[in-house]
Amino acid sequence: MNNSKKLLKLTVNAVFIAIIAVMSFTPLGYLKLGAVEISLLAIPVAFGGAIMGISSGALLGLAFGISSFIQCFGMSAFGTAIMGVSPVSTFIICIIPRILMGAGSALAYKLLKSKNVQDNVSSLISFLTAAVLNTLFFVGSFIVLFGNTELYAGFETQFGTDNVIAFFAAFVGLNGLVEAVASAVFGGAVGKAITKLKSQTK
């Protein structure tokens, strides 16, 4: 990769990090339903990862995770609640799932394009992958790290179950449906744009 393309890639990374920052601290990034917050930030992470590859997907996932952790200092009801239980576990649950999500969605796009799958289909599936992985990793981490807390017990009461699998399905269903629909709509619409931008950064 020559210097001009390296600069372009750096610039594109910076643009997507800026988009993530703006969405994180405005109503554009979250749908808040009581204590549950549905994030739309998987969309720019998946978009950037599809253009620039797995390492950039992980980087953008990290940016998403950092912004999510910052919100735990009084800006997010759910984040503030888990921060009050364990700051270390809160940091883990905010950062690690988002890095894995970013890398995973970029990998999905790369694999699909290597099989010559159409642009719109590749981007749609990679965006869906981002939404699904974000929800699965985050909720799974919450169950593992906070499963023995009063906070978790409160959610069990809210969902009317003390069964881990049923709780996981209820929590995932609530978050995942909205994220998946938004990601699918956006992903299916920008396939050719992703391919064009990706070719310019190679």
Key phrases:
globular; 80% helix; mainly alpha; 202 residues; two-stranded antiparallel sheet
Helix content: over 70%
- Unreliable spans: none
Shape: globular
Terminal residue distance: 7 Å
Radius of gyration: 17 Å
Strand order across the biggest sheet? 1-2
Rounded average pLDDT: 84
- Provide the β-strand percentage band: under 5%
| Main sheet: strands, sense, barrel | 2 strands, antiparallel
Counted beta strands: 2
**Main structural class:** mainly alpha
SS element count, helices: 9
How do the SSEs run, as a string of H and E?
HEEHHHHHHHH
Topology record:
Layout: H1 3-24, E1 30-33, E2 36-39, H2 42-52, H3 54-71, H4 77-85, H5 87-114, H6 119-146, H7 150-159, H8 164-189, H9 191-200
Antiparallel strand pairs: 1-2
Summarize this entry quickly:
Helix content is 80%, strand content 4%. The chain has 202 residues and is mainly alpha-helical.
Descriptive notes:
It is a single chain. This protein has helices at residues 3-24, 42-52, 54-71, 77-85, 87-114, 119-146, 150-159, 164-189, 191-200; strands at residues 30-33, 36-39. A two-stranded antiparallel sheet has the order 1-2. With 202 residues, the chain is mostly helical. The mean pLDDT is 84. It is globular, with a radius of gyration of 17 Å. Helix 1 (3-24) packs antiparallel against helix 2 and helix 5 runs antiparallel to helix 6 (119-146).
